[in-house]
What does this fold into?
Amino acid sequence: MHRTLRARFFGFALLILLPAAAPANELITPPPAIWRDAPQSETESELDRVSRAYVRLANDARPAVVQIRVVPQSDSKTGLKAQQPQGSRGSGFIIHPDGYILTAQHVVDKAKEIEVRLADLQRVPAKLIAADSQVDLALLKIDTGRALPVLSLGDSDSIRVGELAVVFGYPFGRESSMSLGIISRAGRTYEDSAGYDLIQTDAGAYAGGSGGPLLNPKGHVIGMITMASERGSMGFATPINVIKRIVPRLMTGHKLVWGWLGLQMAEVSLDQAKSLGLSPVKGVLVNSVLPGQSAERSGIRSQDVILSVNDTRVDSPRDVLRMIGGLEAGRVVKLTILRKGQTLQLSVPLGQKPESQKEIEG
It folds into this structure.
């Protein structure tokens, strides 16, 4: 009887233990409702169409955006290779199928050798054709034996604050990237002058992105990135219309010598405007006139107020510097001056901007 009870107990225990011996794959099978797959809907939203448009823009633009790599010059005293300057790895973009590339001048400044890495990873040497430090522009040429993809140049004077903008470049010297934002400030250009204010955008711009293109939603270049905020939250671009004015002259070998007045200026304060009878407040106050410079030779005096340059109103020293700095030495500019309550018209031949900061500061 005891044997029978033991047999029955053993069989019962075996039945209890059998589920524990089930195959391992049955134990880890997740319940069917742990996630839900997205429905395969054919309905397309407006955001889907916008997204596709920017994918097309990226596919069209990226092949023409390049990375610029610089080998710096050696130190003439020690013979050692100079420390690579900041921005020596930058970006650029192809503007002609034969291999002409635009980039920022500070990217290739003091370069011994320049190398371009194309979007397909091909690396080729580049030749510096022309450059201008004031506009921060450089034109390079590469030879690949094939027609290269290009970006079309748009109209920077037509852009408006709030419009969408796209930045392409090689931030931090890595792979090509695309940033989307808006035009935060449209910048400004001046008729018959290479003077300008920078375009500002909140599309990300970082170290290594200098020389890259700023595009409108059609994929047309409206500016070239030359500066970025410290955290990369803002980018600043040279208007492309300024670049289009200068490049043809640079390609002919013409060296641009920019103009200079030789003034130290300040904004007109409310108290000064009241004492001068300026209402509303306008113009730029001349603090001092540097000896021997074109302003002194043309009769400009300390405490004069410059109201306009070539009939364009000015309201800050930066306005005057931008406009004059975009005209070549030897050009004659018309200044409207307020002096002791009287308005005068002066014709001032521009001198050559000094190279040393000491001369500039007087």
Notes: The longest strand covers residues 123-132. The longest helix spans residues 2-17. Residues 133 and 226 are 11 Å apart (CA to CA). The domain at 259-361 is CATH 2.30.42.10 (Pdz3 Domain).
